[in-house]
Write a structure and sequence with these properties.
This protein is mainly alpha-helical. It has helices spanning 2-18, 25-28, 41-52, 58-74, 78-93, 99-114, 121-132, 138-154, 158-166, 173-192, 196-205, 211-227, 231-246, 251-267, 271-285, 291-307, 315-326, 331-347, 351-358, 372-386, 390-398, 403-418. It is globular. The N and C termini lie far apart (56 Å).
């Protein structure tokens, strides 16, 4: 009888590992052997940890450890997650002041608000506040502070977070935008809990920056209202969102706002109405002020179509966005546009196009990424995993030369393994 139980336990362990549920080998009383190509959350996390030890640059290590922390949290290991985030902040505290340190601190703050509610995270956020006090660029300091405030709201202090958000500066365009993003995310947190009156109150306080944010916050509430079955709030929010979207004069932002309204209607089952908004979004994208904005806003429509399971309609959009990107004269922005499009192609199931574009993307740093090509390969791997090509996704991840982007990729594979409905992440660098 004991032998039968042991065999059954072993079979169950490997079944759960294959489903993306980590097994604590010591707790289970057995050793799990991982080959590099084993597609399980436990093994991928082990590979990511090994890669993490190979990163020498302090800021790259901190952001990679923070990404891995979110993956561990998604895999029901909050203790490991908090430990990695703690080490990330400790590493940042040793870095020389400057852009790399500031960028890493902002990325770690995002990871802290991306994990599930955890009382220990509030102490980490206090450390973020302390570290941000030495950031000399006022706009960047406001950016980090906004992310910290979102974390405060995420981890149980939403009332305090709202008051902190109201006190954020908005003297510059960047500060106003960061304040608007903070209001938007706090409103979404309230809507997710079904507190629609409170969410709408926060949305009404979002009066700074451009109309784009005022439209998007209402689309966010609408999506949550649909999930909760509140059709009145759903229709009211999308009607206001559409009006605000069309008040703008830049096709880049109009397209983005209309795209998310379309997404909300698809999720609610109103496909025909959604198609009207996606069509209008595409027309608006063509009117953006530069070729790279046209290309990128166009490609993001394809990304959203992939998010809502309508990837079959994305191919012509991807092809048009490539044509627009090729016309961009600024080489850096042309490459950045191709990076975004390649990711959108992968996230909407157009893998061969994504691979072809990767060949045209240089292996050079861009923004916080150590390699633009590697960041694109990261998105290809994520897209492959989304559509069930797990072995190909893992092979793509392991082939990434930039260790930072490899760790980020492996971490995100675990996240989508544990949440197959996960939406594509923003790809700002």
């Amino acid at each position: 009888m004991k032998i039968g139980i042991q065999v059954a336990s072993t079979v169950l362990a490997f079944f759960l590992a294959g489903c993306g549920i980590a097994i604590d080998a010591k707790a289970e009383g057995k050793k799990i052997t991982c080959a590099p190509t084993t597609v399980s959350a436990y093994c991928i996390l082990q590979t990511a940890e090994k890669s993490l030890t190979e990163i020498e640059d302090g800021s790259a290590w901190a952001t990679s450890a923070a990404e891995l922390a979110v993956a561990y949290d998604s895999n029901s290991n909050p203790e490991k997650s908090i430990a990695l985030l703690t080490r990330s902040l400790e590493k940042i505290s040793t870095l020389p002041k400057g852009t790399a340190r500031d960028s890493a601190l902002g990325d770690v703050a995002i990871s802290i608000y991306s994990i599930r509610r955890n009382g220990k995270a509030l102490m980490l956020l206090e450390n973020v506040r302390s570290l941000s006090s030495s950031v000399t660029n006022e706009d960047k300091r406001a950016d980090i502070n906004g992310k910290r405030i979102v974390g405060v709201g995420t981890h149980g202090e939403i009332v305090i977070a709202i008051e902190l958000a109201k006190a954020m500066p908005e003297q510059t365009g960047s500060q106003a935008g960061n304040k608007a993003i903070t209001f938007r995310k706090l409103s979404a947190r309230l809507a997710k809990s079904g507190e629609f009156d409170a969410a709408y109150s926060v949305a009404q306080d979002l009066t700074m920056s451009i109309a784009y944010y005022r439209s998007m916050v209402r689309s966010d509430i609408a999506v949550m209202a649909d999930k909760k079955g509140d059709k009145t709030v759903f229709e009211k929010m999308l009607a206001e969102a559409a009006q605000m979207a069309r008040e703008q004069d830049n096709g880049y932002f109009i397209a983005a706002a209309l795209r998310d309204i379309g997404q909300a209607y698809v999720r609610a089952g109103h496909v025909d109405k959604a198609d009207q908004y996606f069509k209008e979004a595409r027309e608006s994208a063509r009117k953006a002020r530069s070729f790279h904005e046209r290309a990128r806003s166009m490609s993001r429509i394809a990304t959203r179509l992939g998010d809502v399971g309508r990837e079959r309609t994305s191919l012509s959009i991807i092809n048009e966005s490539i044509s627009l990107a090729r016309q961009e004269e600024n080489e850096a922005m042309r490459h950045y546009s191709l990076y975004e499009i390649a990711g959108a192609a992968a996230m909407s199931g157009n893998f061969e196009i994504s691979r072809q574009l990767i060949d045209d993307i240089p292996n050079t740093p861009f923004g916080s990424a150590t390699s633009l090509k590697s960041a694109t390969q990261r998105d290809l791997a994520w897209g492959l995993f989304r559509y069930g090509r797990h072995e190909n996704a893992l092979a793509t991840a392991l082939a990434i030369r930039s260790i930072r982007e490899r760790v980020h990729t492996l971490s995100r594979l675990v996240r989508i393994m544990n949440n197959p409905k996960m939406e594509a992440l923003p790809r700002y660098l």
